[in-house]
Amino acid sequence: MRSEKYVKNYFRKKGTVANWWNPTKNDYVNIYEEQINIIKNWIKNLKNYNCLEVSCGKGRVTKQLSRIFRHYIATDISKEMLAIAKRDINNVKFKIEDAENLSFKSNSFDVVVCLEALVHYPRPENALNEFYRVLKKGGILIIDSDNVSSLRRIFKEIFKYLKITPKKDIGEDIFCPYRKREFISMLEKSGFKIEKFNYLGVFSPIKIRTISDSFYLISPKVSRLLQKIPFDFVPFINKLSTYHLILARK
Hints:
The chain is of the alpha/beta class and 250 residues long.
């Protein structure tokens, strides 16, 4: 990952990540739908709680989860991303925040949600410490990370090694995936206790970009078909999942 200054300035700058991060329209829509379904099942009894979402981006998760909680604050370091999120979400307070240095008081929230974001933090341990700080005692953190050993990443590394694809994908220099044990260890070092763990998206879409063209090894259509088979729960195979999804408690 590039330097802390570079990464944060990149996300703050207009016309950068907002141009290519489109989770409600890209190839991974079915994976994100499954992610939300899992989370909704986890939080179905938390309707009277308040929630802080960190790094909300364009509001994909915000729109889904804000309907559940009594009070919801969504934050992001990007003014541009927040402006997009605000367009059709009315029941949420939006605020510009740096995940690694939150402005909220300690012991303020029942739930903190952070999805598709930890992998972009230059100092993820600082962010996790902040999540722990702002949560009330017994509060819940819902968070995910990209799996460094995913099937998708394995194939991409093979094609890079064969010099079929460019050395870097879009956004790769602002991105750091984690191993399962590494991800869990970071949470535990911040004081969290892991209560639920899910593998997510073993057979997510895999698109290979060559120098002049692109093609699918697994298309979005095939990914949807394979998703009907519970590979995310099959031992050994599930270790190739795209994401690790966790519910942890303070």
